[in-house]
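S., here's the first fold you wanted:
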Amino acid sequence: MKLLKKELAWALAVCTLIVSLAGCSSQPATSPATTTPVTEESTMPVFKDGMDLLAIGHSNTCMSTYELCKIFDNLGYENFNLGVLWRGDSNFKVHTNLANTNQAGVVYHKPTLEKFSDPADTENLTNYRTVLKDREWDAIVIYQGGPALGDEGAYDPYLKNLIRAIKRYCPNAKIYYGIMWAYPTDSKTPGFVDNYGADQMTMHNAAIEMTKKMVVGTEGIDGIIPLATLIQSLRTKYGEAFHVADRVHINTTGSYVVGLMWYAALTGLPLDELSYLPSGVNSQIAQDAKALIPQILKDPYTIIDISEE
């Protein structure tokens, strides 16, 4: 199946980073999940005809990429190459230091259809320079650490310095910020309990507010990928169906829906013809995610309540 050029509505659905959305609420909206056509044009860069994509972050960043290769392949997207640069329990400060010192402190995976990026594989540490020069990366997605999502001091000056370090080796790459989701309500991890009072909406709202305040408008950021809003919207109907037993890391279902958002945001292409569904993933969750994504790309900060559907 070859990609067609008729998918303009989806390309237009991708949100623009430079438009201020400070007036949008992070509480559930009442509108149902639909695929209403979009009329306004976006300025966020998209890649329709091939992409070398690098993900930078921590273990949940790594797990976000589990299903990407299969999603891209199933939809007929050609010339797709994926890299994952990560370090466990890290944030912008940690990555800025690693990028500037070029010490061998990061893991680098190259997932394929046959092999995903396994967070248990932490051997053969490498450095930022090696990874950034490995390909002429078209798009780079960066994540802030979960415990640091609401900490203003974890963004400034580290985000700007990390972007500067990336651009040193990848001057033409487009950089996107993936808004990480809040942990499950029953998570006991210290970063959730101590930093957010073990309250999911406190963590979610902190992630959204820091995105508006500390990420949007930052020079070198070309777009945002509203993963937190997608997960929180799906939770209105499915609860905590997206995490493994440690209540920190996403499971296959979480990786799949996050992968759908990555695909839509980065390519501007629709998910209508996707037939790939990982074993064990609820087909209704997949259907709802595909319906939610165009709306969330238009309004990346507003949770959509689908509990009555």
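And the second, which I think is the more interesting of the pair:
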Amino acid sequence: MKKTTRATATALCALIIAGTTAMGAGAKNSDSYISSGEYQTEITSNLEYGGNIYLDLSEKALPGVRVMLDGSEMIAGQGRIINSVTYVPFRAFCDAMGGAKVTWDASTRTAKAAANGVTVYAKQGALYLQANDRYFYTVEPIANIDGTLFVPVRPMAKAFGLELEWDQSLRAVLLESGGKKPTSGSSFYKSDEVLWLSRIIHAESSGEPFRGKIAVGNVVLNRVRSPQYPNTIYGVIFDRKHGTQFSPVSFGTIYNTPSAESVIAAKICLEGYSISEKALFFMNPRLATTSWIAQNRPYLFTIGNHLFYS
């Protein structure tokens, strides 16, 4: 991941969840295309409030984005680009997936849609979707424009088992059915992995933004994949080969009950989302008792109070 001090996000698009009550606005993004691979991002912070980012949608909406499902127009005339991000209405999208039942909970600012065997929850301001008890990172926040809730398209496509491509020549999102819908969270996530990953995320970054929590989880999983470290989450956390690796192990805070947000961040990491596959170290320079990391490891990026290194 390139060194950066500004938030940008490429390879993203967004869906509109229509038919909800009027709510707030949200955060500015950059590119309008979608890559065939995973999100590629450069992230620090961007007007974060309690883990939520609110979009600045003052830029004029530009029509002309098509959304195709299996070669046919899915929501004719409703696709558009706003602040360089492609959006489509979620209610119409879910109807196209099999007669969706969409409800809105004003107390939690959360929309619920059930269609074709998939139940999806989308909360205004959140950076994730919940689908069949699985958690998919949205990169940019779920936001409301003129009473309509917007959600990035890639996690929504994952939720319904759709393959997704962006065709620049057609200015179109191309979706194909036939993919495998996600299994339930209870069968996908391993309880011990969620437990220990969420505990270290909470212990190390309870006051950090949501992206910072994910980045801390990425460090642990990057170490699991590295031959230089143990090959389990528990093993990495309690690794003492070169001394205690994580201070919460020494302080005992590793055993504290993790917050709900830390648990969700852990599950997003276990879904395979990575802010950086290179990050192996992080530190808060105001709290660090040694400067070894800064002096010996290449700097990557900063999120909140943490500096990350490879």
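Why I say that: Residues 210-225 form the longest helix (16 residues). Residues 8-183 form a domain with the Copper Amine Oxidase; Chain A, domain 1 fold (CATH 3.30.457.10).

Talk tomorrow,
H.
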